[in-house]
Each structure stands twice: as C-alpha cells, then as structure tokens.
C-alpha cells in the first residue's frame, strides 16, 4: 500500500516537473514570437516574419512570428563575444543593443556562441543586424529551454527545504507539490523567457539554489552562488542587502542572546574572512581582466545607464507610475481650469513613450539620487528587522522579498519584469503560512497582469490569457485547499480588486481599440493597466511590510 | 483540490496546447495552384456566401467543382456559410468570389484558426468533459485524468489546429450521441449522431454500432410493446433530423446523391486502373466482404447483448475494420477510430495509450508535409507523459488489466506462458515506441536513398498497419469474450 502511494507521488511529481518543460517546448513550436519592447512603445509588430521549421520554405504571410528586440539583443551579444577579443566586448557599438550585463553573462554568451556556430554561423556576424533564420530561432529558443534545467533542479532543492508538516495524503495537496507547480508554471517566467526572450530561468535558478543552500545551512555555497549570480545579472544587487545581513547575522555570529539580539563575543573572524574571500575571488574572476585592461569605468558605465528615464516606456506598476499619473491628472485639471500656463509645459509628454529625461509638470521632477534614497529608506526597516529579530530562513526570505519589492517600488527605470524577483521567492513563503499566501495571491495576480503588455500581438492574446488563467486558477484553488481550515485568504475588498482585473483587460484589449480614442490616446490602456496594478502591488508591499514588522517574537518561536 | 478547478485547469491546458499548435503552419501554405485543406475551407466559405444554395453542390460557371468542390454534407456547408458571414464583417476580400482564390495573410490565418478553436470549444470539449464526469465507479481524480488525456490526444489537435480541418465538430457531435445514449436519452443521442453524419459522411464508420445498439435495445424491450414504440420514435427522429438538414435542397436531393455516388465510382476506377492487379469488381467485392466479415461478429454480439461498454468497444472495432479494409481511406480517417478509443481510455489505459500513439504516428508523413514536425514531437511527448503520469500504464499490463481474463481462462490448459504476459506486453510496447521514435527522427532528418524515395512514408504506413491489425484482433477478442459471467464474477469478488 505504502509503496503504491509513493509510486503515485513520484508520478505526479513527474507530471508537475516534466509538463512545464513540454509547455516551454510548445513556446518553441511557435517560433520566435514578438514582444520586444525594450525601448519603443509601438503597437505594430515589426515585419520580418519567419517560420521555425526547416522543411518548408519561408512564406511571408503564414507565420505570426516576428523577432523580438530581446531576441536580437542576445543574438548580438553572441556575435560580439564570439568575434571580438575580451578588450572590446564593452566597447563594441555596431548595434544599439550593446552588451550591458556583467562579464559572467558575456562569458555565458561566449560559451553558447561556440555551440551556435554549428547551427548557423551567420548569426555570429556582428553586422547581421536583426538576423533570424529558422536555425537561429531554434538554437536560441532551445538554449533557453536547456538552461532552464538548472531552474528545475533549484526548484527541487527548494521543495526539499519546505517543511512537510502539512503532509496530506493527496499528492495534489502537498505543500511541496504546490510549490513545485507554482514555481515551474509561473506565468511571468514562462512568458518572459519563452515567448518574449530572456534567460531569466537559469538566473532565477541560481538565486533559488542559493536560497535553498542557505536554508540547508550550507552558507558558503549559498554565498558563492549568489556572488556568481550577481556577476551574471546585476539586477540582483537589489536583494543583496538581505543576503549580506543574513549571512552576517546568522553565519558570522555563531550564537544569540536569549532575547534574539546578537552576542557580540560569538563573532567569528574566520567565517567573515571566508565570506569576503569568496566574494573577492568571484569578483576578481569576473571583473579582474577588465581591471587589468583598465576598462572598469567603461564596464560600469555600460552596466548602469542612468541616462535612461525614471519610468520605462511602459510604466512598471510602481510608486513612480502612481506619481506620474497624479502629475498627469493634475496637469490636465490645471489646464482645464487655467491654473497652469500651457506654454510652459514641456512637450515631452508620456504619450511618445520613448525613454528620455522625463519632466513632471506639477509635482517636482525625480532625480536618480532621489530614487536611490527612497529605495534605501524603504529597504532599511526590513533589514533592521532581519538583524534584530532573526527568525532563520523564513525571516531571510521575507527580507529578500521586501528588498525586491521595495526596490521595484522606488527604483530608477524599473522594468515590469523585475516583479518576478519578488514573486518567485514569495512562492516559497506562500506554501508555509496562510497570511503570506493571501499576499502572494494579490502580488502574483497583479504582477502577472502587469506583464500583459509584453505580448501585444493578436495571436499572442489567447496564449497570454489562457496561461494567466491557468496559473491563477491553479494558485487560487491549490492555496485555498491547502489552508482549508483557516480563514479565507482574501478579504472582500481584495477580492473585488482582483475581480476587476477582468473588465480592465476586456476594456484594454477589446473595447478600447474599437473606440475612436484609439488614435488620439493610444497610451490609455497601458496607463490604466500600470496604475491599476501599481495600486495592488503597493498594497501587497505594505501588507507584507506590516505583517513582518508586527510579527511578535513569541509567535515566531512557536513557529520555529 | 475541488473537481471544478481541476477540470478548469484541464480545459485551459487543452486550449493552450491547441492555440500554440495553431500558431504553426497549415496544409498547403503558400503552395499554389491547389494549396490544401485550409484553402478548401476558405473556398467553401466563398462559394456558400456568394452563390445561391441550389448551386452549392453543382458545377456552374461560378463554381468549379474540380477546384475544391464542396464534397461534404449540408451541415459543413452551413458551417462554412456561418463562418463566411463573420468573415464578411471583418474583411470582405477573404471571401470575394473568384478573386479571393488562394488568399493568405496573417490576419486571415488568425481568423481561420479562431473558427476551428471556437468550434472545438463549443462542441468537442464540452462533450469530452461531460462524458468524463458521467463515468461511473471512478474517482474524481480518474475522471480528471481521463479528460486530460482525451483532450491532449495529439492526433486530433494536429489535424484540426495544425493541418486545418473541422473534425472536432463531427466527432464532437458523435460524442454527444454517445453521451446521450449513456444517459438513456436515445432520441437525443440519435439526433446528435444524425448531425454528425450530416457534417461528415465519414461518420458512417460509426453508424453500425449506433444502429445495432439501439436495435438491440428495442429487442430487449420486446418488439411488440415498448420496443416497437421506441423503434418508431427513433426512426422518426432520424428522418426528421435528416429532413431538417436537407430541407433547403429538397428538390435536388436525388441529383446530389447520384452525383456523389458517381464521383465515388469514378475515383474508384481511376484508382484501380493504376493498380491493375485484380479486376475492379473483384477487388471491390473482396474489400466489401472482408469489411463485412470483420464487422459481423461484434455487431451481432452488440445487437444480442446491448450494453454501454460493448457499444463503446464496438464503435472502436467497427471503425477500425472500416479503416483497414474499405476502399479509398484517407490517413486522417484514423481519427474516427481514435476518438472511440479515447472513450475507453479509463478502462484499458495501456492499450488505449498505445493505440493513440500509433494513430498519431501513422499520420506522420502528412504532418511532415505540412511542416508540423515540432508540434508533433512536443504534443506526442506531452500526451505520453500525461498518460504515464495519470494512469500508471506500465503497471497495468496484466491480463486482467487488459480485460483479457475471460479470454485467457478459455485458453487455459493450451498455453502456459500467461505468467510472463505483462512483461511481454510491456516490452512489446517499448519496442514499438522506440521503433516509432526512430522512424520519426529518420523521416525528419535523413534523406531517403534515391532508389526508394518513398521509403519512410511506406515503412510508416506498413508499421502502423501491422499495429492496427493487432489492435483489431485485440478489440475483437475483448468484445467477444466479454460475457455476462465475467461481470457477475466481478460483482461477486
């Protein structure tokens, strides 16, 4: 009997783990689809339709596929790293999509390029801008799928860390199974990686793996993985405070006082030296060659392009979206009632959408320094909380999510995709406590909804809606059944808020294009989506913050 | 988790796969002058919208029957008309008479794909879901996993959403028929089946089991009392639903029929001239005799002992006999066998999965021609893993699980290797899957030797044919050896 049940468990696990891969392949089957919108805000898909399958000659009418800008970005990087010596990687500027990821990612592209040459050597020519042959598409798409294996392994490790207190008989109701599905079927990751084009899968894999190592108390391994990750993609620096403080507090201090504060005498110099050594070694490996070449300033300037605007072309649903929306509203009202002088209003309205220095008209304009300070201040309480009220891995995860969310809320030029940085780690918390599950549902639903504009062609509309529904139905019903005995996960206000995403989507995608405003105010759907989602994400952020800060020690100890 | 949410997830998953496949290429894309089934459907929209109903089936100056003449029954024509009406609203160029021939564009493809998607969503998928919910003596989980496997069956998805056809409509109507019969709503069931028949004449493959089952039911009730009444009612329903479908053509019915029959004869003679082996008459008679003989036992059994289970199995075996032995069979007709097989997937999961895999494989040459290799590979793997995960097919290979117990009992004493049976079956399955995989890879990647340009298609079809013969024998065996005793035994145990 027991063996039989165990057999069932593995089978379903297989289902949960293998199926997303198949789905990812389905994404592949549709070829390189559109969705690129790194800088432009255009509603017309680019020409250049291509098909994937080599058996059939290309036919311009037939396929929906046109190449995404991120697709071209990565092709360009393949070409740069393949053809040029190290010293020119960060100087090459034939394409406008210059290399702006840290060196490890460049090395990763370098490694890929040596496989790519067996598929189609033409994709490795730097001058071949916007080159998309079927073999190129196949190779690029497949490389994403293949590197996703690391993500799958990381998910497996994370599932091991989740305590199985709520061991249910039914495999479908086990927290580990739910967690595996929530992570691997994550709507955002699926569309950003496999439909739009990026390599987030294995990067998040590295992050989750480092989280899992920290939970397993293999601190050095975790620190190493995170240091490597930082040199793959520097956006993860947003969550570095959580890592730093946690390692310092839980690893370098070997003991705590009874009230939870750090015992200063237990500080271990050996451990901090080890940590420092790891970070320095990894950094030396990554940046060392560029320091030797004297190119460090150039690399840094490529990595942190502060010339880009406060908001991305499509406003990521954060605090600044609300700020700009209020500013815009005030401008309109002011103009209508003649409080403002129309001649003094700068022409750079947000309708253009091109990334540029963006002037607010009524409210004071925001500088990079201001956003930096805001981010710092908003991160601070969570870090303090991690230091003064250590709660082991749970506290670390909470702090990690809060760091990610705070920087998403107040960061400079935030991409809407950055919300994944908060959503994925929060999945780990959501299967362990009902309160976090409620926040998770709000955050994922609004955060994923805010990714909709990434896919904007008509053939992609059903896909994004179906995948979103799939993920939402699963997350709601599985978490509901997991916390069946506790009070409802969402209150009525939150439920109403989430339900209204449906009419919003119908309005933006179906009703609005039919109205005459489409030509005069093309930005309205994006603006509405971004502002509406910003409210939800802001709310989830505050709610999580309050729940973390108000958590009492006794409850914590009980939980542990 | 609750049943409804699991079912919703299943349906959403099925829809996602369907739409993703539909992003791929279709039959005859960019291949003038004849294009493929996609153009055929578009052309029918053009014809039905622009010509008066009397001219739909006739060769006129505006309707060249040699260029994709309408060769399906009226319901298909009505469906085309409906689609054409919507097309007209969006872009009149798509269905303009004469000038729209061979029209292809992104938005038109989107439109055509959407029509298939909607038809599938409205007719086939609800039938499958309701059918799975109506299964008796099964847990919720089993119901959901049957629904998942049926909806993920790659053959139908690839042909409808990849190659481009509306099989899900006729098969969906047939499913509604089975569904109604399983609830004992005989009249509704026969009406639904008539609709299926009026959508595609190929549904005749299924007509014998329907007929035998209902006839058997009438016999059971006694031909003098209630049975006769039921028989009259059924006949009335069938006549009425046919009449409704054919009403607009009433004056020309005979002519249309004659036309079509003549067509069949013509094409037959062409076929046989090429073959030139046996005289046409003999060959026709031969094939008729073989089909008839292979159908006979199961049909008699069903008439004598009408049971729902027997009905489903007979649907399979009859359709398979037709597919194997009748003239002029298109490779896509295997779908007519596959859908009934889907219905018994919860009873004999191992064999059903095997059959469904082989049936998809048998269409490989067609799919390759359409450029659907990648969707084929991905959906087949997805289907296989769904079946393995939800039914644990490898653990269900014993004689009992394959419903072969009565058969093996009757053979006891003659054969002694039945202990090894599960292992043998499992290794046969693995062998056949490997063979199919290897052949799929070879036909996709390797150029055939110049002397045998048709090497791969021929070997694909001969291997599939061998499989199908084996399955025919298997299904006949379980139908014929399925006695009341065994069911009684089950109840006792």
From TrEMBL, chain B:
<dbReference type="GO" id="GO:0005789">
    <property type="term" value="C:endoplasmic reticulum membrane"/>
</dbReference>
<dbReference type="GO" id="GO:0042281">
    <property type="term" value="F:dolichyl pyrophosphate Man9GlcNAc2 alpha-1,3-glucosyltransferase activity"/>
</dbReference>
<keyword id="KW-1133">Transmembrane helix</keyword>
<dbReference type="Pfam" id="PF03155">
    <property type="entry name" value="Alg6_Alg8"/>
</dbReference>
<dbReference type="InterPro" id="IPR004856">
    <property type="entry name" value="Glyco_trans_ALG6/ALG8"/>
</dbReference>
<keyword id="KW-0328">Glycosyltransferase</keyword>
<comment type="similarity">
    <text>Belongs to the ALG6/ALG8 glucosyltransferase family.</text>
</comment>
<keyword id="KW-0732">Signal</keyword>
<feature type="signal peptide">
    <location>
        <begin position="1"/>
        <end position="24"/>
    </location>
</feature>
<feature type="transmembrane region" description="Helical">
    <location>
        <begin position="334"/>
        <end position="361"/>
    </location>
</feature>
<keyword id="KW-0812">Transmembrane</keyword>
<feature type="transmembrane region" description="Helical">
    <location>
        <begin position="310"/>
        <end position="327"/>
    </location>
</feature>
<feature type="transmembrane region" description="Helical">
    <location>
        <begin position="110"/>
        <end position="132"/>
    </location>
</feature>
<feature type="transmembrane region" description="Helical">
    <location>
        <begin position="373"/>
        <end position="394"/>
    </location>
</feature>
<keyword id="KW-0472">Membrane</keyword>
<keyword id="KW-0808">Transferase</keyword>
<feature type="transmembrane region" description="Helical">
    <location>
        <begin position="227"/>
        <end position="249"/>
    </location>
</feature>
<feature type="transmembrane region" description="Helical">
    <location>
        <begin position="144"/>
        <end position="161"/>
    </location>
</feature>
<feature type="transmembrane region" description="Helical">
    <location>
        <begin position="458"/>
        <end position="481"/>
    </location>
</feature>
<comment type="function">
    <text>Dolichyl pyrophosphate Man9GlcNAc2 alpha-1,3-glucosyltransferase that operates in the biosynthetic pathway of dolichol-linked oligosaccharides, the glycan precursors employed in protein asparagine (N)-glycosylation. The assembly of dolichol-linked oligosaccharides begins on the cytosolic side of the endoplasmic reticulum membrane and finishes in its lumen. The sequential addition of sugars to dolichol pyrophosphate produces dolichol-linked oligosaccharides containing fourteen sugars, including two GlcNAcs, nine mannoses and three glucoses.</text>
</comment>
<feature type="transmembrane region" description="Helical">
    <location>
        <begin position="173"/>
        <end position="197"/>
    </location>
</feature>
<feature type="transmembrane region" description="Helical">
    <location>
        <begin position="428"/>
        <end position="446"/>
    </location>
</feature>
<comment type="pathway">
    <text>Protein modification; protein glycosylation.</text>
</comment>
<keyword id="KW-0256">Endoplasmic reticulum</keyword>
<protein>
    <recommendedName>
        <fullName>Alpha-1,3-glucosyltransferase</fullName>
        <ecNumber>2.4.1.-</ecNumber>
    </recommendedName>
</protein>
């Amino acid at each position: 009997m027991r063996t039989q049940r165990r057999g069932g468990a593995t089978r379903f696990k297989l289902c949960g783990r293998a199926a997303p891969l198949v789905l990812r392949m389905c994404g592949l089957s549709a070829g390189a689809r559109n969705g690129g919108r790194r800088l432009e805000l255009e509603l017309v898909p680019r020409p250049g339709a291509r098909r994937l399958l080599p058996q059939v000659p290309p036919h311009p009418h037939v396929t929906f596929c046109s190449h995404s800008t991120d697709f071209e970005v990565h092709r360009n990087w393949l070409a740069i790293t393949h053809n040029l010596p190290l010293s020119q990687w960060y100087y090459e500027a034939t394409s406008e999509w210059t290399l702006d990821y840290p060196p490890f990612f460049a090395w990763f592209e370098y490694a890929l390029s040596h496989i790519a040459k067996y598929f189609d050597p033409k994709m490795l020519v730097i001058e071949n801008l916007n080159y998309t042959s079927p073999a190129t598409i196949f190779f690029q798409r497949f490389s994403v799928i293949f590197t996703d294996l690391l993500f799958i392994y990381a998910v497996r490790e994370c599932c091991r860390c989740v305590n199985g207190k709520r061991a249910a008989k039914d495999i479908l109701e086990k927290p580990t199974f739910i967690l595996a599905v929530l992570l691997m079927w994550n709507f955002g990751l699926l569309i950003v990686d496999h439909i739009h084009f990026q390599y987030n899968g294995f990067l998040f894999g590295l992050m989750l793996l480092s989280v899992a190592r920290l939970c397993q108390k293999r601190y050095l391994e975790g620190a190493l993985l995170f240091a490597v990750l930082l040199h793959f993609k520097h956006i993860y620096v947003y969550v570095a405070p959580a890592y730093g403080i946690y390692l310092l507090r839980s690893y370098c201090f070997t003991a705590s006082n009874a009230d939870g504060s750090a015992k200063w005498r237990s500080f271990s110099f050996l451990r901090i030296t080890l940590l420092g050594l790891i970070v320095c070694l990894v950094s030396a490996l990554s940046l060392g060659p560029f320091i030797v070449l004297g190119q460090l300033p150039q690399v840094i300037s490529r990595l942190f392009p502060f010339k880009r605007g406060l908001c991305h072309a499509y406003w990521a649903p954060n605090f600044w979206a609300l700020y700009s929306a209020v500013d815009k509203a005030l401008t309109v009202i002011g103009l209508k009632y003649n409080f403002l002088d129309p001649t003094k209003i700068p022409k750079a309205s947000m309708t253009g959408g091109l990334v540029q220095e963006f002037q607010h008209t009524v409210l004071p304009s925001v500088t990079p320094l201001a956003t930096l300070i805001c981010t710092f201040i908003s991160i601070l309480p969570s870090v303090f909380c991690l230091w003064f009220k250590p709660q082991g891995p749970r506290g670390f995860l909470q702090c990690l999510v809060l760091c990610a969310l705070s920087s998403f809320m107040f960061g400079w030029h935030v991409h809407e995709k950055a919300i994944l940085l908060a959503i994925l780690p929060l999945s780990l918390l959501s299967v362990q406590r009902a309160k976090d599950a409620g926040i998770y549902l709000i955050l994922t639903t609004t955060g994923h909804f805010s990714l909709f504009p990434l896919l904007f062609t008509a053939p992609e509309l059903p896909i994004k809606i179906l995948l979103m529904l799939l993920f939402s139905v699963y997350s709601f019903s599985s978490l509901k059944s997991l916390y069946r005995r506790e009070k409802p996960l969402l209150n009525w206000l939150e439920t109403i808020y989430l339900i209204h995403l449906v009419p919003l989507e119908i309005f933006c995608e179906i009703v609005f294009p039919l109205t005459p405003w489409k030509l005069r105010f093309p930005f309205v759907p994006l603006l509405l989506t971004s502002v509406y989602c910003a409210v939800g994400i802001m709310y989830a952020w505050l709610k999580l913050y309050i729940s973390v800060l108000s958590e009492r020690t006794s409850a914590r100890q009980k939980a542990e | 988790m609750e049943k409804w949410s699991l079912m919703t997830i299943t349906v959403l998953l099925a829809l996602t796969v369907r739409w993703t496949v539909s992003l791929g290429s279709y039959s005859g894309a960019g291949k003038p002058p004849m294009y493929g089934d996609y153009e055929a459907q578009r052309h029918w929209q053009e014809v039905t919208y622009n010509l008066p109903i009397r001219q739909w089936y006739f060769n006129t100056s505006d309707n060249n029957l040699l260029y994709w003449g309408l060769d399906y029954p009226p319901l298909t024509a009505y469906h085309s008309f409906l689609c054409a009406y919507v097309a007209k609203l969006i872009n009149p160029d798509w269905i303009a008479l004469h000038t729209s021939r061979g029209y292809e564009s992104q938005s038109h493809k989107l439109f055509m794909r959407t029509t298939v998607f909607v038809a599938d969503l409205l007719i086939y998928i609800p039938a499958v879901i309701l059918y799975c919910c109506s299964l008796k003596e099964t847990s919720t989980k089993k119901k959901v996993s049957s629904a998942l496997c049926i909806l993920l069956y790659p053959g139908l998805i690839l042909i409808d959403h990849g190659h481009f056809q509306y099989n899900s409509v006729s098969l969906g109507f047939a499913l509604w028929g089975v569904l109604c019969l399983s609830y004992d709503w005989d009249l509704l069931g026969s009406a639904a089946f008539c609709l299926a028949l009026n959508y595609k004449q190929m549904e005749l493959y299924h007509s014998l089991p329907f007929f035998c089952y209902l006839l058997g039911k009438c016999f059971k009730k006694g031909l003098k009392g209630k049975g006769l009444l039921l028989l009259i009612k059924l006949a009335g329903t069938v006549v009425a639903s046919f009449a409704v479908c054919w009403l607009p053509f009433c004056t020309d019915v005979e002519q249309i029929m004659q036309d079509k029959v003549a067509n069949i004869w013509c094409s037959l003679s062409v076929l046989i001239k090429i073959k030139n082996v046996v005289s046409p008459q003999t060959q026709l008679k031969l094939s008729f005799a073989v089909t008839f003989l292979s159908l006979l036992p199961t049909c008699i059994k069903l008439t004598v002992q009408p049971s729902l289970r027997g009905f489903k199995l007979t649907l399979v075996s009859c359709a398979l006999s037709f597919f194997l032995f009748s003239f002029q069979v298109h490779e896509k007709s295997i779908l007519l066998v596959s859908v009934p097989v889907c219905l018994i997937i919860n009873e004999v999961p191992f064999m059903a999965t095997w059959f469904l895999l082989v049936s998809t494989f048998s269409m490989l040459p067609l799919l390759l021609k359409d450029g659907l290799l990648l969707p084929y590979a991905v959906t087949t793997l997805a289907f296989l893993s769904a079946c393995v995960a939800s039914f644990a097919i490898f653990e269900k290979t014993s004689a009992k699980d394959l419903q072969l117990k009565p058969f093996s009992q009757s053979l006891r004493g003659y054969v002694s290797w039945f202990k090894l049976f599960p292992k043998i079956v499992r290794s046969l399955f693995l062998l056949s899957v490997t063979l199919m995989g290897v052949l799929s890879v070879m036909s996709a990647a390797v150029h055939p030797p110049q002397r045998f340009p048709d090497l791969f298609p021929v070997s694909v079809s001969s291997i599939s044919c061998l499989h199908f013969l084996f399955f025919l024998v298997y299904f006949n065996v379980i139908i014929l050896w399925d006695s009341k005793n065994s069911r009684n035994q089950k109840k006792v145990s």
